Amino acid sequence: MTLTIILVLISTISFLFFGISCFVTAEMKTEFIRYGLSDKLKLVGTLQIIGALALGLGYLYLPTLAIIGAIGLSILMLFGFGVRIKIKDNFIQSAPSIIFAFLNAYIAIVLIMND
Fold first, then answer.
1. What pLDDT, on a 0 to 100 scale, did the predictor assign at position 6?
2. pTM
């Protein structure tokens, strides 16, 4: 199993989990209230699920779709990092968003170079 496959799996599973969590857990609702974005919870969850499906299924069947999914998730996480900075979260709270932004940017670059 290559590094790219492992990273695609990690990202796909993570974003499916967090996207679905936006619809079913009270913790996500509480977090989005803390962010000042409670009205965007379902939009973000939907974008996470769509991005995860595009990345995972695209990797298997349509590389261009995987690239779009990875870029979309990277941008989504850059916005998430910006929100974390805006609300003055500490490094530990902010780290996952920037790590996932870089991880998906890396995936997109690798897929573009191999396409």
1. 97
2. 0.94
